[in-house]
Design a protein that fits this description.
- The protein has 643 residues and is α/β, with parallel strands linked by helices.
- The protein has three domains: 291 residues, Rossmann fold (3-Layer(aba) Sandwich); 154 residues, Rossmann fold; 133 residues, Rossmann fold (3-Layer(aba) Sandwich).
- Helices cover 41% and strands 15% of the residues.
- The chain has a seven-stranded mixed beta sheet with strand order 9-8-10-11-13-12-17, sandwiched between helices. The chain has a five-stranded parallel beta sheet with strand order 2-3-4-6-5, with helices on both faces.
- Helix 14 runs parallel beside helix 20 and helix 21 packs across helix 25.
- The longest helix has 23 residues.
- 49% of the residues are buried.
């Protein structure tokens, strides 16, 4: 029977989970009798709610695939059979069942478990993920490798209906159907976006279509009719029409998959029986399961977007503290962008907003409600988002693409080929630039300065605070050509945000603090740390604002009046803003010490943002120490030269 146990609140104490506590590996799960799986699901759901309540993090998606996770590990011989999770938000139950239950308290913390599957973390994490729509390609690669190695192992990709909107998923489906590889794609349909046809009749046909008897008859019929192509084509069309009346899988059948479903993704016995049938089948299989995001936790079922992830549940203090006057909350950089876009659209009817499925994250909800005809959520399709903007710009619109730095990487070819080459008037509002903390390297915006700086026609701006972000977004909108404004996750220093929008001089920085000997050229939101370090060092601080075009006159002036130039950015040093400065100085045959501070040539792991900045030497203390160390080496070199 379907598990209907519903939690109304997150447990405050670790729940009693005697069955779950016996599972340290899927092999132990497979030893359980099938009738105990529903109890295991209840215990796993209560443990997941409690553990995420202790740490914060993603849990809505995990609750939705909890029964599916149990069934997959129960039926397939993981890790020998390869299980690949798309995106990774849904992998918490998988982590709990694969030997990491007692480590869940460390998830997304520095030195703890990653928030996504990670190959270095567990042999059960067969493919590292973070961006969507990669699972089918990876599973196909593993299926091909198994065939080349004469292995009978299976590969299973679990992909959400949202991730199916990306072209990459369909490219992989098309290739898999062509190769006729032994693999299973499980479509987790948690928004009923493909079909609402779920119930007794649908479940019955799913059992029938996955049964060995049906598939033996199907395959034998193909052999019998092999020499009768006209009759075989008629039978195939008849089968498709019959399936089309009971299931929405015609598209997947046309791509070469055997479609099964849709079935109830929370019915454990049905899932196990269906998967056991599918495991015996040859060729590419497609199982469509319908789930409820946040299943089993009433608030998350009612608000799946709001409960996609939660913050740590803090204990209620025993006594109420004395009331204090509330401090006004500082807006996040995303809020600054969202308000600016509404203001810009109010002033100019040509302004349109585009997002690849990041409405809430990019703070576009107000814009979507106020300007619905000028708001376009293209789903998880970053390449399309960029070229859509190019098409709009060709015919007089002023498109603004709101996109995370890490996701713009997926539309890089379109940015070059469709926007920059044609010098089209598109603004890229690049959110989550720099390190992103607990989400780790898959979501970090560590490379955008480097990969944008080499593209002709691009203007690249690095605002240092909230008001600068607003004003430079406006500057990019007024610029006739492609322009990018990068800003980080979270809040800024709390600068006053001016209502008035003013175009800033293109490619011009500003001196924030006068000093001597050392000039810190800051690019972006590390300005506060730069000023703190400069106070101890007596250094000059310049807010450069523009990476491209670079304020060459200001750089030359700083080079002429200081002994050491320090460039500072929350971007990888390789090819970043500091490289732009050194390239310019070389072109002018200016020889002087330049210290480039930025992200190291490594993938920075997850942890709190301030912890990661300190590890990279990009907090005020780290900046000061690195500069002092360089100054000491320069003084030693000078003394040696004098001797």
């Amino acid at each position: 029977m379907q598990d209907t146990y519903i939690f109304k609140e997150i447990p405050s104490q670790r729940p009693n989970t005697p069955l779950l506590d016996r599972i340290d590996a899927p092999a132990q799960l497979r030893e359980l009798p099938a009738e105990q799986l529903s109890q295991l699901a209840r215990e796993l759901r209560s443990f997941l709610l409690w553990s995420v309540g202790q740490t914060g993090g993603h849990f809505g998606a995990g609750l939705g695939v909890l029964e599916l996770t149990i069934a997959l590990h129960y039926v397939f011989n993981t890790p020998d059979d390869r299980l690949i999770w798309d995106v990774g938000h849904q992998a918490y139950p998988h982590k709990i069942l694969t030997g990491r239950r007692e480590q869940m308290g460390s998830i997304r913390r520095k030195g703890g478990l990653a928030g996504f599957p990670k190959r270095a973390e567990s042999e059960y994490d067969t493919f590292g993920v973070g961006h969507s729509s990669t699972s089918i390609s990876a599973a196909l690669g593993m299926a091909i490798a198994a065939r080349l190695q004469h292995s009978q192992r299976r590969s299973i990709a679990v992909i959400g209906d949202g991730a199916m909107t990306a072209g990459m998923a369909f490219e992989a489906l098309n290739h898999a159907g062509h190769l006729h590889s032994n693999m299973l794609v499980v479509l987790n349909d948690n928004d009923m976006s493909i079909s609402r046809n779920v119930g007794g009749l649908s479940n019955y046909f799913a059992k029938l279509l996955s049964s060995r008897t049906y598939n033996q008859v199907r395959n034998n019929s193909k052999k019998v009719l092999q020499d009768k192509p006209h009759l075989r084509a008629l039978v195939k069309r008849t089968e498709e029409h019959v399936k089309g009346m009971i299931a929405p899988g015609t598209l997947f059948e046309e791509l070469g998959f055997n479609y099964i479903g849709p079935i109830d993704g929370h019915d454990l016995p049905l899932l196990v029986e269906t998967l056991e049938n599918i495991r015996q089948l040859e060729g590419p299989q497609f199982l469509h399961v319908v789930t409820t995001k946040g299943k089993g936790f009433a608030p998350a079922e009612a608000d799946p977007i709001g409960y996609h992830a939660i913050n740590k549940i803090e204990p209620v203090p025993p006594t109420k503290p004395e009331p204090v006057s509330p401090r006004p909350a500082r807006p996040k950089y995303a809020n600054v962008f969202g308000q600016w876009l509404c203001d810009a659209a109010e002033q100019d009817e040509r302004v349109v907003g585009i997002t690849p499925a990041m409405c809430e994250g990019s703070d576009l909800l107000a814009f979507s409600e106020r300007f619905p005809d000028r708001y376009f959520d293209v789903a998880i399709a970053e390449q399309h988002a960029v070229t859509l903007a190019a098409g709009l710009a060709c015919d007089g619109a002023k498109p603004v693409v709101a996109i995370y730095s890490t996701f713009l990487q997926r539309g890089y070819d379109q940015l070059i080929h469709d926007v920059a080459i044609q010098n089209l008037d598109v603004v890229f509002a690049i959110d989550r630039a720099g390190l992103v903390g607990e989400d780790g390297p898959t979501h970090a915006g560590a490379f955008d300065i480097s990969y944008l700086r080499c593209v002709p026609n691009m203007v690249i701006m690095t605002p240092s605070d909230e008001n600068e972000t607003r004003q430079l977004l406006h500057t990019g909108l007024m610029f006739d050509g492609p322009a990018a404004v990068r800003y980080p996750r979270g809040t800024g220093p709390g600068s006053e945000i001016l209502d008035e929008l003013t175009v800033q001089p293109l490619g011009k920085g500003r001196i924030i603090k006068e000093g001597s000997e050392i000039a810190i050229l800051n690019f972006g939101t590390l300005l506060t740390s730069a000023l703190e370090a400069a106070k101890a060092l007596g250094a000059t601080v310049v807010d450069m604002r523009f990476v491209k075009p670079l304020d060459e006159q200001l750089v030359l002036a700083m080079a002429e009046s200081h002994d050491l130039l320090v460039t500072l950015e929350e971007n990888t040093i390789a090819g970043g803003a500091g490289s732009a400065v050194t390239e310019f100085l070389n072109s002018r045959e200016v020889t002087m010490p330049v210290l480039q501070l930025g992200l190291p040539d490594t993938f920075v792991d997850h942890g709190k943002h301030e912890e990661l900045l300190a590890d990279c030497g990009l907090d005020s203390a780290g900046i000061q120490k690195t500069i002092e160390d360089r100054l000491e080496r320069l003084r030693r070199q000078t003394l040696k030269a004098v001797k």
